[in-house]
Amino acid sequence: MRIVNSEEIVNAVRRMCVRANCYINSDIRDALEKAEIEEKSDVSRTVLSNLLKNADIARDKEVPICQDTGMAVFFIEIGNEVHVEGDTVTDAVNKGVALGYTEGYLRKSVVADPLRRVNTKDNTPAVIYYEFTRGDKIKITFAPKGFGSENKSAVKMLNPSDGLDGIVDFVTETVRKAGANPCPPMVVGVGIGGTMDKAAQIAKKALTRSIDVRNSDEFYASLEDKLLERINKLGIGPQGMGGTVTALAVNIEVFPTHIAGLPVAVNINCHATRHATEII
To answer: Is the pTM of this model over 0.85?
Structure first.
């Protein structure tokens, strides 16, 4: 049994809050640079160039890539040979978020109640998904989720008979309705299977996968490519200015489901698709 002090979790989370919000990941940067070359619209190429300049300024000055520094979402894998002493993992994560968002001068966007809407003033509580695995490590993935993109996400309970065409039509239509609101070129996470809530969870988790890594199942990797092609034919383009690059990638995750159902969730992210991972 390995002992981990909860302060290690606090400090890891504090670091990730700043890093994810201020530093664009290399896979996203590579995709934006490629998009700048391939985009057919002169105006949209300029938009992509400005997005890259913005990322450079954020990196050099360690300031947020976007003013919406998101609701803090975590995917945490805890090994069965780890014992955390001190605070609970949940309390440690929330302490780390409070410190990271306060010390990093990141915008606090969380309200304590969805209707009375009083700001918690430290961006807590975080949304946390736990998975218990084998081993003596804790893997923490942080994904700040801005709501310009989150608000355009959707879940639909398709019938099994809707099949592949039904999935393609739903995902494409969700992106079409989103338009320029998610700050395209976007990354589209798709969750297929499970229950309504499980489909939404895996769609969000899909956004934490590097966009240069395709689904390990060739069938779903092919579907990712098909969806990306369909989405990029919508003509929304970078920041809604028109063009051929509406999305940088489509990432699909799947889960077994009931014989009577075909849940599909679409979780959209902006061009930055921020996330960071640390292993303790």
So the answer is: yes
